[in-house]
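Morning. Coffee machine broken again, so started the prediction first thing and wrote up yesterday's gels while waiting. Chain of 245 residues, entered below exactly as on the submission form.
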Amino acid sequence: MSNSKQQLAEALRAALDEKIESVEVACNEVTLEVGAEQLLEVATRLRDDAQFQFQQLVDLCGVDYSQFGRDEWLTEEASRGGFSRGVEDNVSSGRLQFGDELDSLAVPGKRFAAVYHLLSYVNNQRLRVRVFAADDDFPVIPTVTDIWKSADWYEREAFDLFGILFSDHPDLRRILTDYGFVGHPFRKDFPLVGHVEMRYDPERERVVYEPVSIEPRVLVPRVKRTDNRYLIDEPDAPDEAASDA
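Came back before lunch.
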């Protein structure tokens, strides 16, 4: 593990102490977890403190952890009907069906999070900051647009796709979906086919919205290949003639 990352983690613990919830070095990056109520104070310190100087917000995204760590794939081969979520249902994994409620599956207060990726040009360091919304039903996190201007559209994207509200955001509107779109498409309980479909009606001479008519399917190939490209070569068997000799 890089000494610079360990040093950054230790500096964060020493400087922020009770203002943060945890700091860890994993997957070759430093992750800082902060409570929503402490976010603005910690973010300002990360930007302005001489030993940190994270002046650039590279990216901000939302995350729905309601199905985190759950496995619903059991099949190793594709069926005749194509790839699906598995030939057999893995009941023990808590497989999510369309329309299922997630309240019993998600850890309270740990469903929705905003993840911030920061960059310090001066120190040549990167930092990942994660902030969970305390309320799963009405997730709210303070906006950081006054600290990093680049957060504006990133927060709109997280709001649009995950339904995370960023309080005091100057213009929190949808940015990728249509203004009449229903729901938030990156939430784990959102149907993959959506709720409605749209088409142009020549008789009405306008676009109309109708209930979705296609059957929900998952067409992601999750197959373990077993052909010769992926087989592990076994050591050659000893020569019988040599052993007889």
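The two ends are 52 Å apart (CA to CA). Going to sketch it on the whiteboard this afternoon.
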